[in-house]
């Protein structure tokens, strides 16, 4: 039997079967609540249960205080009765805004030992709309989908730039290694996701951009969009990786820093070797933020990359740094197993 889910203060209600999570129920009804990993890790989808009962939804992505105050992870919580829940944001999904396009491979550039930048061109005259930070879905021959963030800014709307990390045994990685060539077609659907800069009355909030590995891709789009829009909002990018060669666009980030008075760049390595001659910051990238900005109360944070980094950052920023939990936006890359022998690094989203 379905239950009715009310989103407090938004005048929105939808039905949801107990077999579905509240998040899946919302998405099926055409409403998007902030979410990212759909695995109970990132904390994006948390909401506070005001009345009614849910099963599940506690754990990793929540702080102890949030659990005490009735918060649950809506990607993991299933309704046991009619439920009223408070969410930080909700928007109606505009399915007509999502375009499916036959793109063509335009360029492939290996920029790090395990990263390729893939540029796709749309057919002549085709333009797509997206927000800086959003992602697209690539359809593979077996009918499965892979999701990658656009690294180019939205005004470059006749093509997309994707930063692909090679994962041993991954379908798309294998396709790139073995068969993908310039001129090949790829079907993509675009855009998806709620990882984009919040503007409006919070326009001037200083912003921490936090990336690990290819989590740099949507952050690059956000920064290049800010440059184009002459936004001048104070931003500091902390980009973490294991070795210097993994920071595959370090020169670009350094160029931004030298040219933009509102932008700073802090590269952080977690596994530098003596042969790297690295004189910069070391350790976990989110801890570098904590060291430099112990009080995050006035900030917004946009984090993209490995779930462990995102989980640790959210926990420490909120707990120790005084960050408003509603000012933490993230896009978590989650590994999923598509067969017993194959694990692929993708961004899991509703498509
Ligand atoms: S914890 Fe639910 S979307 Fe990440």
Provide a compact summary of the structure:
With 351 residues, this protein is of the alpha/beta class.
Major beta sheet, strand line-up = 13-12-15-10-11-14
**Fraction of residues in H or I helices:** 10-25%
Radius of gyration: 20 Å
Number of domains: 3
Number of strands: 23
What is the N-to-C succession of helices and strands? EEHEEEHEEEEEEEEEHEEHEHEEHEHEEE
Q: What is the CATH architecture term of the largest domain? A: 3-Layer(aba) Sandwich
Poorly predicted runs of 5 or more residues: 336-351
CATH class of the largest domain: Alpha Beta
Roughly how many Å apart are the termini? 26 Å
General form: globular
Number of helices: 7
Description:
With about 350 residues, this protein is an alpha/beta fold. The chain has 3 domains: about 5-90, Ubiquitin-like (UB roll) (Roll); about 95-195, Translation factors (Elongation Factor Tu (Ef-tu), domain 3); about 205-335, Rossmann fold. It is built from 7 helices and 23 strands. It has helices spanning about 20-30, 65-70, 170-180, 215-230, 250-260, 285-290, 305-320; strands at about 5, 10-15, 30, 45-50, 55, 70-75, 80, 85, 90, 100-110, 115-120, 135-140, 145-150, 160-165, 185-190, 205-210, 235-240, 265-270, 280, 300-305, 330, 335-340, 340-345. A 6-stranded antiparallel sheet has the order 13-12-15-10-11-14. Strands 19-18-17-16-20-21 form a 6-stranded parallel sheet, with helices on both faces. Strand 16 (about 205-210), helix 4 and strand 17 (about 235-240) form a beta-alpha-beta unit. The relative contact order is 0.14. The chain binds FE2/S2 (inorganic) cluster.
């Amino acid at each position: 039997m379905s239950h009715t889910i009310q989103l407090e203060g938004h005048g929105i209600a939808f039905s949801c079967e107990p077999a579905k999570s509240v998040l899946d129920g919302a998405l099926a009804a055409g409403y998007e609540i902030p979410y990212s990993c759909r695995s109970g890790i990132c904390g994006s989808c948390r909401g506070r249960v005001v009345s009614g009962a849910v099963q599940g939804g506690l754990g990793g992505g929540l702080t102890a205080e949030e659990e005490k105050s009735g918060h649950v992870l809506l990607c993991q919580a299933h309704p046991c009765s009619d439920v009223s829940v408070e969410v930080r944001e909700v928007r109606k999904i505009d399915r007509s805004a999502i375009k499916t396009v036959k793109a063509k491979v335009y360029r492939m550039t290996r920029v790090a030992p395990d990263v390729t930048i893939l540029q796709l061109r749309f057919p002549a005259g085709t333009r797509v709309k997206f927000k800086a930070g959003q992602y697209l879905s690539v359809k593979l021959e077996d009918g499965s989908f892979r999701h990658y963030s656009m690294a180019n800014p939205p005004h470059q709307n006749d093509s997309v730039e994707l930063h692909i990390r090679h994962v041993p045994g991954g379908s798309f990685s294998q396709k790139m290694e073995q068969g993908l060539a310039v001129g090949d077609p790829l079907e993509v659907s675009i855009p998806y996701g709620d990882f984009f800069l919040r503007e409006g009355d919070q326009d001037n909030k200083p912003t921490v951009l936090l990336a690990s590995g290819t989590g740099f891709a949507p952050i690059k789009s956000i920064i290049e969009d800010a440059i184009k829009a002459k936004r001048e909002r104070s931003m500091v990018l902390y980009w973490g990786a294991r070795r210097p060669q993994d920071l595959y666009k370090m020169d670009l980030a350094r160029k931004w820093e030298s040219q933009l008075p509102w932008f700073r760049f802090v590269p952080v390595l977690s596994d530098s070797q003596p042969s790297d001659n690295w004189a910069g910051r070391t350790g976990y990238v989110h801890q570098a933020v904590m060291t430099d900005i112990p009080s995050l109360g006035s900030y917004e944070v946009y984090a993209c990359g490995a779930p462990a980094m995102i989980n640790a950052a959210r926990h420490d920023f909120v707990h120790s740094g005084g960050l408003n939990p509603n000012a933490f936006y993230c896009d978590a890359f989650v590994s999923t197993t598509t067969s017993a022998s194959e694990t692929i690094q993708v961004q899991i989203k509703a498509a």
